[in-house]
Write a structure and sequence with these properties.
Elements lengths: L2 E7 L4 H11 L5 E8 L5 H8 L3 E4 L8 H12 L6 E4 L8 H6 L4 E4 L1 H6 L2 H23 L1
Length: 142
């Protein structure tokens, strides 16, 4: 089973490139189907273009508030067929709207993400993500 991955990245994209390389080398049984960034100048966008991947910047300041921003990101994600969202150095804190849309989707994310959430939020919306990550790492890493 090849897993279809969407990556969210904010900067250089070194995590994105590592995931891409792992997919290409067969260390991850998957393929990246898209990359989104919250920064127009993110090098990761140029790298995704070089690889021929769907890519786009969704910029928070272009929306009236966080909910509208998340709604726009969700709209972009809904255009793709994916199994896993990877927040690879994605520096925006995502909220309830994003997670309610992505219910049932597996996640991987950088450490900044979990530190920005309260423990209450983690237990209500994000705690099950840890179990899914554990399962995914077990599958990919043995």
């Amino acid at each position: 089973m090849s897993i279809k991955i969407v990556v969210l990245a904010s900067g250089r994209g070194s995590n994105f490139e590592a995931i891409h390389a792992a997919c290409q080398e067969g260390r991850i049984d998957g393929e990246i189907v898209g990359l989104f960034s919250d920064k127009e100048e993110a090098v990761a966008l140029k790298t995704a273009e070089k690889y021929g991947l769907t890519h786009k910047a969704v910029i928070a300041k272009n929306y009236t508030d966080k909910i509208m921003y998340e709604k726009a990101l969700v709209e972009e994600l809904s255009q793709l067929d994916y199994d896993l969202i990877v927040l690879a150095g994605y520096m925006k804190v995502l909220g309830e709207h994003f997670f309610s849309f992505c219910s049932g989707t597996d996640y991987e994310y950088s450490s900044i993400f979990i530190t920005e959430f309260s423990w209450t939020t983690c237990t209500e919306t994000g705690f099950r993500i840890w179990g899914q990550i554990y399962r995914l790492y077990s599958t990919f890493c043995g």
